[in-house]
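At this stage, I wrote out one protein's amino acid sequence and its backbone structure tokens, and that material follows here:
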Amino acid sequence: MTAHRFRGVLALLAAFTMALLSGCGGKSRPDTSSSFISIAPVAWTLYPGQSEQLVVTRHNSDGSSSVVSSGVVFAASADAVASVSATGLMTGVSVGTGTVTATVGDKTADAVVKVTPLFAGPVFTDDYAAGTTFVPFGGSVNDLAVDRLEHHSWSASLKVTVPAAGYTGGALKAASPQNMSPYNAVTFWAKASKAVTLATAGFGDSATGDVRFKAEVESLALTTEWAKFVMPIPVPGKLSENAALFHFAQGSSGSAYAIWFDDIQYEYLGASALGAPATAAVGWRPISVDLGKTAALPSGNGSGNTATYSLPAVKLVNLGIGYFDITSDAPAIATPNLDGTVKGLAFGAAHLTAKLGGLSAGTGTVTVAPASPTSAPPAPTASAGNVISLLSKAYTNSPVDTWNASWGVVGGFSEAVIAGDNMKKYANLGYAGIEFVSHQIDAAQMGYFHIDIWTPDMTAFHVKLVDFGPDGAYGGGDDTGVEISVPVSALRQWQSIDLPLSSFTGLKLKNQAQIVIVGEPYANGTVFIDNVYYHK
């Protein structure tokens, strides 16, 4: 009995001591209460058997944060889709979508996991992989066949007959999007019936307009012997849903010949065969976006986007914008979207920075500003007797058949009335034809060609004057046409262009019938024109 009472007293003293320590020391300890916890990655795509470690971060009320390494309880909403271990290792089990929840005390955070089928690496070995079909590129001429006489391995290859005229090309496409994230390269073997240079091979181009995850190599030397080619996947984790497995394009050379492809497949290559990209670049150029509008980034279609590798020595070109992580230093002004566009939210300028994985790929400027003029250009001052006008409020205008001929490349043409002036707007201007064939102009006594332009985004403006010659008709061997490039001196301001007719070297002037205007960059800028006339 005495021993029992002694142990009870010791226990009571220990409890009392702990209470004192807690009461005395509580105020000297830092406040580690958290306002919330977060989990990363917050969304992830896995294939069955693939794992990803979850990381939980505590965000404290004082603004500090720290990784929570213990005391986290993880739970999966659907163990049949994705499971999670006690340490937060998330593993794909079967195809589907589920949620993994992390709990720390009374705080929770969720991560969404999507499990997709593991893509069977081969695209073409002895035949097209199951569900894979060929989709031709627009305007191509194609003759493809499974050739059982020529092959690199096994018993057949894919034979492509290059036509004597035109070009052949298209994509091998899966029936549904595939998870290619386990792989880091697309490889294939190729040969030709004669030594040629293959113009383009690649992947990620669906032949239906989706090029967000496109990548290509160009100018591949083919011989009459089989050779292996490697195309790295720039950021494998981003290629989790892609049906565009492989594509090629080859132009004619005057006579038909054959190219063979074999063992087209997705592979995971070790570090001794494939290194990380050495450099990356996005084809930036300054652009303007109207307030509240969305515009395509200059590199949104892949043009100018590259990644170079030293192992193997290869350069990827026309790299899809989807591979890059793009951030804005002023998201309240301009915000990039995942589809390669940017939206203008407030007037001002923002710098967009692109990264390929962790590799810097360049910075571009986006200016959010009015995309249309708010005033008319200065009124012309030349005497009406010294002017032959096509478009001007100040003069009587000679008739024009069309301001936008059908053979031009213009994204959008419209008439505009701004500050009382009638002017013409050309959006996404490649080139536009202004025709006055029915009322040709004799400009032999004139000294200059004048045009006023306003553009929010063009770097240069080209003017081509075309004379139909004495017969007054297109063709016949007596036509002349001369083009001059004029730098754009200032964006979003009217620029008055006076071109001496003598600078159009070799141009006849008595039967002026066409003016061709050309935008730079091609088909990716907008221009307003006004006061178009010849004058002394």
Remarks:
- The mean pLDDT is 89.
